[in-house]
């Protein structure tokens, strides 16, 4: 048993028997998100015991000590540049392209936007600058917190595998009960995640790739197991192709090349893929780029490179 009236506890070590352990698997899957939610609420409260947040980043790594009852916490704080959310960046680009296109047709000409052959064009400089904004924003450092703890009594209790936790309504309150629950929930979470992983691998052991297989677990119930490979666009490839990333040893993006003032028109034409227009403006000749061609280029790049990952899905069904 794992969950009963919001009680979570350890499960026995998986013994390889799919049918015998199906109940523990179901309950583990139900418990894991509840445990993560409770632990995250407590961690966010612990973060407030430090002087750091998005507006006040640590200049160097720092360590804050904080105790509740018999639990001693160590909160290590440091600044870190997060890994860019490339998919989110591309989605912002597509929204920008579509938005500019619709805005022009609704309200007419605007600075750096123009119409030619029924297509809306943007100046190459504006296109580059507006596409760079979400890329640069993704490089803004964030505060990072690593929490460790020690409690002799709880560690002895965990070692004896004698732990269960009643999840309460307010897991984020900084009190002794939640501090002790946090320590024990950490061990229970490791136990449940390990159990789920081993169960999935055992269930998929004799399953043919991309074919759904039914395994009976009782007279009334069975599980459908599907071992498949999911493929998705390599969004990092899309971003790196279009915009120069602010890191060393990176190729120059296509839109950066089009906006480069020192490049000749012939060199810019060699970039290809885009409909361009050398437009006369108050500031002289400027290169404009068709927004529909930018949209098409993004969609094309999204289909050129993919990332694959294994996915094992298990679904409980009734035996008719």
Distance between the termini: 27 Å
Name the quaternary structure: single chain
Helical percentage: 40-55%
Report the C-alpha radius of gyration, rounded.
27 Å
| Adjacency order of strands in the biggest sheet | 4-5-11-10
Mean pLDDT: 89
* Class by alpha and beta content: alpha+beta
For the secondary structure, the number of strands is 12
Q: What's the tally of helices? A: 9
User: Which series of helices and strands comes N to C?
Assistant: EHEEHEEHEHEHEEHHHEEHE
Poorly predicted ranges? none
What is the percentage of strand-forming residues? 25-35%
Q: Which sheet architecture does the biggest sheet show?
A: 4 strands, antiparallel
Mass-distribution shape:
extended
Describe the protein's architecture and organization.
The structure is a single chain. This protein is α+β, with helices and mostly antiparallel strands and 320 residues long. The chain has a domain at 86-139 and 232-308. It contains nine helices and twelve strands. It has helices spanning 22-47, 86-107, 124-137, 152-159, 176-203, 235-242, 254-259, 265-269, 291-304; strands spanning 7-9, 62-68, 71-80, 113-116, 119-123, 142-150, 164-166, 213-216, 221-233, 276-281, 284-290, 306-318. The strands form four sheets. Strands 4-5-11-10 form a four-stranded antiparallel β-sheet. Helix 2 (86-107) crosses helix 6 (235-242). It is extended. The two termini are 27 Å apart.
